[in-house]
Design goal:
The complex is a heterodimer. Chain A is mainly alpha-helical. The relative contact order of chain A is 0.15. Chain B has a two-stranded antiparallel ribbon. Classes of the chains: A mainly alpha, B mainly alpha. Chains A and B meet through α4, α9 and α12 of A and α1, α4, α9, α14 and α15 of B.
Chain lengths: ~325, ~425
């Protein structure tokens, strides 16, 4: 609970750069295709689960990986359509520091909670039992792939997949039909293009913070007490993959934001390259190496690279854009 | 995991402003510090009332004395929750607050729990350690002698044992658990219902180890008082919290806004309110044993409003008020000041609705029930108000920067060391 992130308020040193066209371009050129992929892979996941709900199904597993890839690529864009009706909360409940997901799933399976029969009623169950991370338990954790009644497990997997399809479709729909326009021509939600730029800049910082603090920091724990079981999506062997996908997506965003300042763009690009190269050389898909002093330092070095990226974005890109870091959902405990 | 990005922000500051406004900043910071000192002094005073009640309960256990201790705990929360707005932004407070208000907790560390609580988890091997029942046990491979339950044992050995944040051995919520016990009503009405006989002597004792439970309660309360004494002193004239804040006026104003925004958005709206609602989980209530969560959220919100308008009503009715952020904003952008005031009032209205409904019998855990549309509307009203006001706080940050006239001062970025000269 002592963790906190103090708001950075860098000075505006340079004249404000005309950013309106650039931010409109980010919404249309960068974000909309990612959201289309999010919705497309969500729909494909539900189709695969309807065709074969068995955890061993290679089609279903492949669809799960595609869908979660698409989510991770947008996981830093936590504003607007992902927040409407709390969609992102129910798609991606992680980290789960109190083990709510296994508890919620065990309770549902034990009671054969009938909410799985109807999308509207499944939408009302605890978010710990919904979304990608709960589905991962059902597909990859041996304690859950065999738990209780097979027909009920199948219905649960299909309900989770259908929920993912519905919510990702809704996110995409809102982006296409209203939100991209609000970013392109700020009027009410955003008062001006600076506020749009700030939103995107905050997303960049949030994504870097999430990567350093959660995706890497949670399994790292402390030297005395490493926590490999806190690695994200380790059951499906995806922990490192999430770091790489996030960094690639953040690199695209940073490049677009810095487009009008070649110096800042160049130094960010170099640091992203260095960080991604280190991740590629790690060859430790679930960060098992955090528990071994001989390999732990390599994960720590990767975390430090991400921290350096955060600092660089905050101290160089923020002033260049003339915006503040503002507040994000990771502020607080 | 804490303060990873502190280094990059320690040098951040607001733009230098003209001399007249600089004078205002000093007055605003002074009033803010006075309010902080008063809130912690009130927290300390009400904690001492709690201590008297706790000692009476342990010395002569009875239903009346348990009720009196619970009443004193509830009163002590009123000033403390209003002080939470000082956490984020003031490093000294943030590093300290885990001692007194850590949450959520795996209460099985402290005392007996219901079978439905479960056992040790992947995250916490000590989730059911039960110190009250065990005078000796092993922790991180070391044998611990807990024959005497002392403030030192709680603070230095048990609190955050094995680096697990939910091993909460001290503070308001540990005391709350010892006074109320687990709330086993789920999302039905009702708080924890620990019997006074959990503190009774001899054959009347229920739950076992009543003497050790009493010792734990007394030790935790004594520790709360010494921790509150310490933080109150930090805000007095010459205290570290006050002098740090006033050493750099722009950084001080930044700290005020940081506290308002972080408590509103990430902490209260996100972690404490929306997440609990979406998990439909009464264990996610901030004051889950006592069912006091409606007040906890309400007074957090009031603390944010206090900072902006520069006013605090003490527990004895005295009003502390003075130069405010509101006046600073009004001088550069009156419309923005009006917007901020309206949003803070709207939030208090929304949090007030939750409090009103809870006090009339629709408790916060009932609001969390899956599919309870009325409860969801009430809680989301509070969340939306807090999220919305954060947007205005960000606008104020920008307004105080750009409208602080010339962007001439750039020491803090060009030459960070100059800031500390």
């Amino acid at each position: 609970m002592l963790r906190s992130f103090f708001l950075a308020l860098p000075l505006a040193l340079s004249p404000l750069i005309a950013q309106a066209d650039a931010t409109g371009g980010i919404a249309d050129g960068l974000i909309l295709p990612l959201m289309a992929d999010l919705a497309g892979s969500g729909a494909a996941l539900s189709t695969a689960a309807e065709a074969d709900c068995s955890p061993e199904s290679s089609d279903l597993q492949a669809a799960f990986h595609d869908a979660l890839d698409a989510w991770v690529r947008v996981s830093h864009l936590r504003f607007g359509p992902t927040e409407t009706d709390n969609r992102a909360f129910s798609l991606a409940f992680w980290p789960d520091s109190r083990s709510k997901t296994p508890k919620a799933l065990s309770a549902m399976i034990a009671k054969e909670n009938p909410a799985v029969a109807e999308p509207a009623s499944f939408d009302e169950v605890s978010i710990a039992a919904q979304g990608y991370y709960a589905l991962e338990f059902m597909l990859f954790d041996p304690a859950y792939t065999e738990l209780g009644n097979a027909a009920y497990r199948c219905a649960l997997v299909q309900a989770q997949s259908a929920g993912i399809a519905d919510k990702t479709a809704a996110i995409h729909h809102e982006w296409v039909n209203s939100f991209a326009a609000e970013m392109r021509d700020p009027a009410t939600r955003y008062r001006n293009s600076e506020e749009v730029t700030q939103e995107l800049f905050k997303s960049l910082l949030t994504g870097l913070q999430m990567t350093a603090d959660m995706r890497l920091g949670r399994p790292l724990g402390t030297f005395e007490r490493p926590r490999p079981k806190r690695a994200e999506a380790y059951r499906s062997g995806r922990s490192l993959r999430h770091v790489v996908l996030t960094l690639e997506s953040l690199n695209d965003l940073a490049r677009a934001l810095a487009a009008q300042d070649p110096d800042v763009a160049g130094s960010l690009e170099a640091q992203f390259d260095k960080t991604l190269q280190r991740a590629a050389n790690l060859h430790d898909p679930v960060f098992a190496g955090v528990a071994d002093p001989a390999t732990r330092f390599r994960v720590e070095a990767l975390q430090q690279d991400v921290l350096d990226l955060h600092l660089m974005a905050e101290q160089q890109l923020g002033p260049a854009l003339g915006v503040e870091a503002g507040f994000n959902s990771l502020d607080g405990d | 995991m804490k303060s990873l990005f502190l280094a990059g922000t320690a040098v951040a500051a607001l733009t230098l402003a003209p001399a007249a406004m600089a004078a205002d900043k000093a007055a605003v910071l002074s009033n803010y510090s006075n309010i902080a000192e008063a809130k912690y002094a009130d927290s300390l005073a009400t904690a001492k009332v709690l201590q008297t009640a706790v000692e009476a309960l342990v010395a002569s256990p009875s239903a009346e004395n348990l009720t009196a201790a619970r009443t004193a705990w509830l009163a002590a929360r009123v000033p403390y929750q209003q002080s939470e707005v000082f956490r984020f932004g003031n490093v000294i407070v943030d590093e300290w607050e885990g001692k007194v208000n850590a949450w959520p907790l795996d209460e099985g560390l402290i005392d007996y729990v219901d079978a439905s609580y479960g056992g040790a988890t992947d995250e916490n091997a000590s989730a059911v350690l039960n110190v009250v029942a065990n005078p000796s046990f092993e922790l991180s491979g070391k044998a611990i002698d807990a024959t005497d339950i002392t403030p030192e044992l709680l603070a230095e050995t048990l609190h955050e044992a094995e680096g697990v944040e939910s091993n909460v051995a001290t503070g308001y919520h540990a005391i709350e658990f010892l006074l109320w016990g687990q709330d086993l009503n789920g999302t039905d009405h009702g708080a924890g219902s620990r019997s006074w006989t959990d503190y009774a002597a001899g054959d009347d004792c229920t739950g076992g180890n009543c003497d050790r439970r009493g010792a734990y309660l007394k030790a935790a309360t004594a520790l709360l008082i010494s921790d509150l004494e310490w933080i109150t002193a930090q805000w007095a004239e010459g205290g570290e919290a006050r002098t740090t804040l006033q050493a750099d006026e722009d950084a001080g104003i930044t700290a005020m806004l940081t506290g308002m925004g972080s408590l509103s958005y990430g902490e209260t709206a996100g972690e404490r309110m929306r997440l609990g609602l979406m998990l439909n989980d009464p264990e996610e209530e901030h004051d889950c044993f006592s069912d006091n969560t409606h007040n906890s959220h309400y007074y957090d919100g009031l603390g944010v409003q206090n900072v902006y308008i520069g006013e605090y009503v003490r527990v004895n009715g005295e009003v502390i008020s003075g130069a405010s952020l509101s006046e600073m904003v009004m001088s550069v952008d009156p419309a923005l000041d009006a917007e901020m005031r309206v949003k803070l009032s709207d939030t208090m209205l929304a949090l007030g609705r939750i409090k009103t409904a809870a006090e009339a019998g629709f408790s916060y855990d009932q609001m969390l029930e899956a599919g309870n549309a009325g409860g969801e509307t009430l809680i989301m009203g509070g969340v939306n108000g807090l999220v919305d006001q954060t947007k205005s706080i960000e606008r104020i940050v920008a307004a105080l920067k750009v409208d602080g006239v010339a962007v001439e001062g750039s020491d803090s970025l060009d030459n960070p060391s100059a800031v500390f000269e």
